[in-house]
Design a protein that fits this description.
One of its GO terms (biological process) is proteolysis. Helix content is about 60%, strand content about 20%. The chain has four helices and three strands, in the order H-E-H-H-E-H-E. The chain has a three-stranded antiparallel β-sheet with strand order 2-1-3. The protein starts with a helix and ends with a strand.
Amino acid sequence: MSTRKELFDTQTIVEEAVKEQIEEPAKYHVFLLNDDYTPMDFVVDVLCNFFNKTAEQATDIMLTIHNQGKGLCGIYTAEIAETKVEHVVQYAFEHQHPLKCVMKKA
């Protein structure tokens, strides 16, 4: 018959083995890219509506996009990043703007 200590030791070993197998999912950066046609207020609108940024945060990111060519909108797991990119691209297309949104592994 197993003692209580043996059961505890076995459970601890199993828990440690499972923890070693579990990895945090990969993260992806989502960027908006600068273009010469999309209005700045549309970019701010996208940042507020799709990335939950405040008007001030969105304006700062928009200026970064304008001055540096791209701006980081957020860091997400692959599925969420893909969804954000698809939604932004579709929204821009519907409003006839060439705004590009991309994701890159962090």
